[in-house]
Amino acid sequence: MFDFRQNADAHQILRRDSETLLPVYARYPVVMDHGEGVHLFDTSGNRYLDLMGGLGVNALGHAHPRMVQAMADQAGKLVHLSPQYASRYPGELAERLCALSGLKGVFYSTGGSEAVEGALKLARTHARQNFTHSKHGIVALRNSYHGRTYGSLSVTGQEKYRLDFGPGLPHVSFVDRDNLEQLRAAVTDGTAAILIEPILGEGGVHPISDVFLAEARALADQHQALLIFDEIQCGLGRTGEWFAYTRSGVQPDALILGKPLGGGIPLSALLVNEKLFNAFGLAKHGSTLGGSPLACRLGLEFLQTVEDEDLLARVADSGAYLMEQLRQLASSISIGVEARGRGLLLGMEITEPARPIAEAALAQGLLVNVVQGNVLRFLPSFLLQRKDIDVAMKVITGIMNPNPSGTSFHDAGHVLSKGMSASEPISQSALEPASV
Ligand SMILES: Cc1ncc(COP(=O)(O)O)c(C=O)c1O
Questions:
Q1: Would you kindly state where each structural domain of the chain is located, as residue ranges?
Q2: H/E stretch holding 196
Q3: Which end of the chain has a smaller Cβ tally under 10 Å, C or N?
Q4: For residue 256, which atom of ligand 1 is closest to its CA?
């Protein structure tokens, strides 16, 4: 067990953070110092196997030599440039993203929420330009997550996130995932866009069926609405394919990407098809920091590294291996509900709060994430290997099923009390409300 509190420096950093940073994240009582591959190291030198993966950003792990080299080289040349000037990498990256997705053009921004804002504006301006001013409806999924800014929050299908900030954007409706009847009833001629996360990530890791995606495509065509996929979390190789929607055969009108794209330097992208290429027009949209030469160069290095190291195949293999073990565990413990997901976007639902399990795992050198209170979510680096998974499963199994005769984590009560009896608990809640 690690005792994070032994380190006076870490203690001071945690204290200062708690006094200076707004308390919106249910943080863990540890201070990280550096990372290497699939591991993070804290300020005491403890090593952690990172299955949280920077919430999906660290697809190439930490300090990947190619990313470090590209970052250092580009930092010495050109980091930021006014978007009015051209440089080599934004167009080159756009060309690659379009070739991978079959779409036509790209608008860059910084974070995922900002790209979702762009998509919503695009849908509405497209509808106004081509149809009527009353065609502004957005249909999204219940339990979806699209971000924290006003537009993206308004289309996020979880009331708990919107509640304190209303009113949000009007003319947004939500349907249950995979409910064709609700979808058919919600999409009308007044719909500007249908917005779907092909795998609900923060919503608890729920893949959307191909049938539902196909129906959304058919309804969008029938009602001249746009079909937009938010693949900020599930895209760019996370499922073992470049995009989660690929296998469905359904082509969206617009696609939103983010998280791993800039290798940790903020970069998101809104990709659109031919008919939307000129929808914004001059000076109708923008982002000062979006698509910087540094971020785009890293985007290219990220894509090229995934290709050169054959990482899509690795994600498919290690994802299947991890899934199999999570399924076995879920079915063998009394608190297990199910394991689900695709590639290296996996979740294991249990009948109890999962935060104590994540905290116990942290105390044993394993980082996992919790969503929806009772789902352990795994978003590790694409570099993860079977041997890492064996280590992780040993820890998780030991915590959840310390006594293989069937005693649950809850019954066995407390791995936590050994490693985590911090004098000042950082998290007051068993839930993890701000974890996306
Ligand atoms: C599917 C999806 N959309 C949008 C966002 C928002 O992205 P960001 O936090 O970069 O603004 C996230 C973040 O987790 C996400 O998973």
A1: 4-63+310-419, 66-308
A2: strand 191-196
A3: N
A4: 3
Which residues have CB under 6 Å of ligand 1? 111-113, 116, 145-147, 197, 201-202, 230, 232-233, 258, 436
In tens, the pLDDT along 142-172 reads 999 999 999 999 999 999 999 999 999 999 9
CATH class of 66-308: alpha beta
The Cα 108–Cα 234 span in angstroms is 18
* E runs forming strands in 17-94: 32-36, 39-42, 47-50
Q: How far is the CA of 200 from the centre of ligand 1 (A)?
A: 11
Report the CATH fold assignment for 4-63+310-419. Aspartate Aminotransferase, domain 1 (3.90.1150)
Give the closest residue (by CA) to ligand 1 atom 3.
146
Residue 431 scores a pLDDT above 50: no
pTM listed for this prediction: 0.93
Mutate to test the pocket of ligand 1, among 55, 141, 145 (most ligand atoms within 8 A of CB): 145
DSSP letters, 285-313, are S--SSTT-HHHHHHHHHHHHHHHHTTHHH
Query: Whose CA is closest to 188, among 147, 236, 139?
Result: 139
Residue 268 has which token pair? Answer: 């998101």
